[in-house]
Amino acid sequence: MSGPTVPDVPSLGSDDCQVWWASLAHSAHWHTQLLDEAEWRRHRRYLRAADRKRFTVGVALTRLVVAAQLGIRPASVPIDRACRRCGYPHGRPRLATGGGLDFSISHSGDVIALAVTRSQPGDGAVRAVGVDVEMISAAAADEALVGIVLSAAERTAFRDLDAAEQPAAFFRYWVRKEAVLKATGDGLAVPMTHLTVSAPDEPPRLARWHRRPGFPASLSVHDLEARPGYAAAIAFVGRDAAVAVHDATGLISAAHLMPA
């Protein structure tokens, strides 16, 4: 890129969170030029072309939006993916230099979601964000997966639903939990069954966390409106944020943003 900043990305306020939606349909060859060495190694490990595209578009979108907020070139955005448990580059992505921003990325089917917020909104407060999007599939919401994702209380309510309602309800549970676990940084280290969230037709909230009785009070959860056939949610640890939704089509498909 020739310019120091990325155009058409609004400035992020102290209590704001931007959610950017992108699609695989707007994948461009120049996106790969925004991958660093560790990301290239991960890119090559994906066996399916669609998985490689999802990952690449997610990285490109992250660097474009974060670069705009920091006022630097997208290729210069330092993303640290080191796992805090083992050190391998498969952990929750974060800015290696701090930078006062926190972000989360998710992709499913041909949809990619990026959430970016201020990690230090002021007054000593802190904030971390997690976002999740999942394509709704009736086949995925089978009994085996239900036992892995839903807590005992959730399974009882889930089984009372009509069969036609269960797939959408199951993935609503899923994205709310996944968003929370991304925001906390726990990821797959905590079983989803340890979390109990509100019913899919109720306002989203974390009702219970096994062996962390006081933790739900520090979390806020919001449902996101995704494309038809998808479910999505966002969660914040610490201070809540006002969520603004943006279409990333123009941003990730703009040929003039191709790195020099």
For the record, the CATH architecture of the largest domain stands as Alpha-Beta Complex
Query: Reading side by side through the largest sheet, how are the strands ordered?
Result: 4-5-1-11
The major β-sheet equals: 4 strands, mixed
Task: Give the CATH topology of the largest domain.
Answer: Ribosomal Protein L22, Chain A
Please bin the fraction of helical residues.
25-40%
Rg measurement, Å: 18 Å
Shape: globular
CATH class of the largest domain: Alpha Beta
Average pLDDT number = 92
Tell me the number of structural domains. Answer: 2
CATH superfamily of the largest domain: 4'-phosphopantetheinyl transferase domain
N-C termini distance:
5 Å
* Unreliable sequence segments: none
Beta-strand percentage? Answer: 25-35%
What's the count of strands?
11
Quaternary organisation = single chain
What is the string of SSEs from the N terminus onward? EHHEEEEEHHHEEEEEH
Give the helix/strand class: alpha+beta
Work out the helix count.
6
